[in-house]
Amino acid sequence: MSEQSNLALDEASQEAATLREQLNHYNYSYHSLDAPQVSDGQYDLLLRRLETLESQFPTLCSADSPTRRVGSAPLTVFEAVEHAVPMLSLANAFDDDELRDFERRLHARLDDDSAIAFVCEPKLDGVAVSLLYHDGILVQGATRGDGFQGENITANVRTIASIPLKLLGEDFPPVLEVRGEIYLPRAGFERINAEALAKGEKPFVNPRNAAAGSLRQLDSHITATRPLEMCAYSLGLAEGGNLPDSHLATMGCLKSWGFLTNSLMAGVTGIEACVAYYQRLAELRGGLAYDIDGIVYKVDRFALQETLGFVARAPRWAIARKFPAEEASTRLLDVEFQIGRTGAITPVARLEPVFVGGVTVSNATLHNEDEVERLGLRLGDSVVVRRAGDVIPQIARVLPRFEASAGEISEDNSQAIVFPTSCPVCGSALQRSEEQAVLRCTGGLVCGAQRKEAIKHFASRKALDIEGLGDKIIDQLVDAELIATVADLFSLRVEQLAELERMADKSASKLVASIATARATTLPRLLFALGIREVGETTAKVLACHFGSLEKLQEAEAEALLAVPDVGPVVAAFVGQFFSNSHHQAIIASLREAGVEWPDIEPVDTQALPLAGQVWVLTGTLASLSRSQGKAQLEALGAKVSGSVSAKTTCLVAGESAGSKLTKARSLEVKVMDEAEFVALLQGAG
Ligand code: 5U1
Predict the structure, then answer these.
(1) Does ligand 1 lie within 6 Å of residue 295's CB atom?
(2) For the residues 604-616, what does the mean pLDDT come to?
(3) Is 452 known to be catalytic?
């Protein structure tokens, strides 16, 4: 071996030793102590790195490597169980190309280019178990343990309602081992955590840990109180009887014998269909009732599975495609305080950038002071960041405030997060609303930050929709004192705008033109644009339809405001306060002087409209009209149109490729309409 490759081997050997130590430590904390110290994503990355090193330098492979192990050694308190057929693990694919490589390997090994039938299944994030049936009677339940030997948890599995104690039908093999995942649905997780908090106990960190903790109870009465489920996904030992010749057909048998199987399981042909299934499931993921961390793809035909066989600890005929981790750990660098349009002060965490949920995250909202306290967060802490779907990144929890290095506990260098006592932008006094735990700057439009936010809101798409007037331009205009109120926008000149950073003469002229175009607006848009507290787009429309003119709304007493559908005392008070403020009156007068126009509309009795009081949601692609046209037509019929499905939803209109909203509507038994029915309804009403 050359000197250079010796050096590479030395370096790799040291790195592998450190990785093994770290992984063993994290694995022990996770599996045996039920106290995770790093996120799953972080753990996976370390394990992958070790796998890469071991495959590059085969002499580094050792029997005790975490890459050779599935889970941890069983706890001694439960009786040990030998698995007659080892419960092996799965190889992973981290992107579409790795999935395509999987199919290429299959064709090569089978020496056959015929299209392969696959079964695609959601990979539940729970605890793998084996259930043994003798003549249809459940005789043993065991955890996977290290894949060869697990723990006997028969008493605990018997408490789970979705596990049959006696199989249905008669056509099952006399000796049958069924494998699957025990998991806690999200709603059950919320429930047991709420109960734990109410009793002053520590809540579980995620549904998988809650399921593992529930199964590790020595007293099965405790397990019986946990709403666990079991979803079957394969067979282990099977003796006697006749079984089908494919995985999909076998899953059908399991279903008929009384097992829960996943309703999203699908048989497809060829790897491109597997890739498409991944996209579909990724969209549904956020709306499912349970956590999944990926998809398992299996070659359907048992004859092919047999030919393909196993390699190391995994079958060659199956692969798991992981979703981007929804959680990752990073460090809290700083906390900044943002002032919103209504003066609300939001602490924002500045984080060491981390890749999570498919994007790089460097900021996370901390909501308010109570949230910071609930998390027990301090500057310099290691934190777990969560980003599920399109949801704004959140800090899920703080990791233990020490670093174990070579058995030593390092110093705690964290620092307290200090909340401001006056507005960090204008110095005005702060007010704390007790019920919402929100700190608010009392400076109103004296505060530069609130002024900027008010103007950004005024120019936004659903308000006056001023094209080309982005947030950065507004920041510069306010900082340079070229504008102080929304009305000042209309006297801006091309020369003034051309002075701004990255603004050429041409774009300055275009912006002046689009500000001029925005002068012709509508009453609902203007009402929304004014930024009255608690008056969103829908309430602005309702107020506009009810009063018909700005003057009538300005004159309205509390009683008249309360007569408007959906306007309660809080909204009525904010509307009243807004129009009685002399500064706001001056702004409205300046807008008129600047030539902004909002024609009066014919007042409508919205309560008498056919869909009054109903809440509708639109999802998927509609072929015959756009989403905004659909929304406008529903609103014209008196319905409210919401962006999310809840128990209050009257009806969901599901277009082509509807995703998680459709799943949620079905689970809540909300009425669902397809496009044809929707169009017919609109035509009937028109
Ligand atoms: N859905 C599913 N999860 N899961 C996990 N199927 C499935 N199959 C597995 C594992 C470990 O293993 C089989 C390929 C034997």
Answers:
(1) no
(2) 87
(3) no
